[in-house]
């Protein structure tokens, strides 16, 4: 997502009053970044809270997009920017924290947003976890933490289709973790989530020989290319 993409996605998703409010709020933040602390919590009530894509319950919401545009409008960089978004994250509710995570790819923060991502991955809030594993995590999160985040998604029922960077970040170690998880589930007589299959299919040689129970794990639930084919 870019600011232009977000503005386009919001077309028709807000009332006329909400559109005017957001434009004015972004202009105010561009002039005085400090006012964002008062405007940020208001975005849901003024702009709306529904999903941008009704078919994607873990995707962007209207207030995610509005808050991200507010943050992108701030003329801040470096430490001042990190301090501002860090304060908004720490003091915000779940929706406000999610918006900060969504906005990270739009902001010149480098690796500075990683502490917020790691904090979100320690929670049990599915939508916060999904937001934490968005485009910013794809580009900046270390391999081990990313793998653990993906496995947490499987444990908590977050569809892996909600993770835009997964095909490029999947690796043999992630597949081994998924294989171990699948074996534990089948040994306990429990269903293996369908999401596990596509990851295993990317690396068919990592499952230990003789573990025939994995043959029944669905592998045709995604048409995304493997990292080796991309």
From TrEMBL:
Region (Disordered) residue spans: 206-230
Superkingdom of source: Bacteria
Name by which UniProt lists this protein: EboA domain-containing protein
